[in-house]
Each structure stands twice: as C-alpha cells, then as structure tokens.
Amino acid sequence: MAYGNFMCYNNFMNTLTSSVTNLTDDKDLIRWDPKFALGIPLIDEQHKHLVELCNKVYTEVLASRLKYENDKNAQWQNAMAGTLKECVNYVATHFSNEEKIMKLVGYEQFSEHKNRHDEFTKKVLETAKGFESMDFSDAIKFCKFLYEWILSHIAHEDKLYVKKVLEYKKI
Asked: What pTM did the predictor assign?
C-alpha cells in the first residue's frame, strides 16, 4: 500500500471509530461529525439524514425488542416495518441525487460508485424482506452493517468525487 493510501486509510479509520458510539451508553449509533461534510449542501444534508435514519433503525430495534421481549410472535420485527421502508426509500432518493450530480460533472469513477450503491441497495432490500423472520442478534448485525457502510461510504467513497464537483462549479 502506498504511503498516501495508507494515510488516507488511517484518517478514514480514525474518523470511523471516533464517530461510532459505545452501543451501551448512547441511544445513537452514529454521531454526525463535521469531518463528514463534503461541501455540497444538498448531499451533506442528505448524509446527515442517513445518519439519523441509521440511528432511528438502531433505537427502534432496541425499543421494539424490549417492548416485545416476551412475545413469541415476532411483533417487534413488525413494528420496524415503517422505519425500514423509510430507510429504503430515502436511500434510493439520495443515491439518485448523488448519481445525477456525478453524471453531470463527468465523474470518471461513476460506474464503480454506482455499483457500490447498487450492492448496498440490494443488501438493504434483501434484509428488509427477511426482517420479519430475523432474530434480535441479526437485527443488531444489520444495524452494524448500516453504520459501517454509511460511514465508510461518506467518509471515503463520496469524498473521491468532491474535487470534480467543485471544479465543475467553477465553470
């Protein structure tokens, strides 16, 4: 690994670990950090909302599980349906906006970036479809997947197209 890539990876990991909270001490899974800002207001606001949605999924998994802990009929998963739908719909909206911007500015790695969006969307849709049969441990793993993906994507992947957007804005 080249020194520059190593430093970029180190910075990314430091950002990631400082933004993930202690799961037992805080109702939020992720704290928005100004270091995540790209300088593109629409995308920054959407990223903040994605962080909020991830936190909402996490807190609702915990709250629903506690509320229905003695229920053998998996009502806690059913209680999550609206939140998961909201998350899926918002991710689709955000990715669409982000992809339009990347296309507009001629971002060279657009196809690769879109593929990562598509892979994430597929995983979230598959999980949402099977959520009613998911146990609590799997639901927490899904929350962990969400925060890892969101933070790695925002803190690293999305930063790669910012230069192209800012250059385009100067034209």
From this structure: 0.78
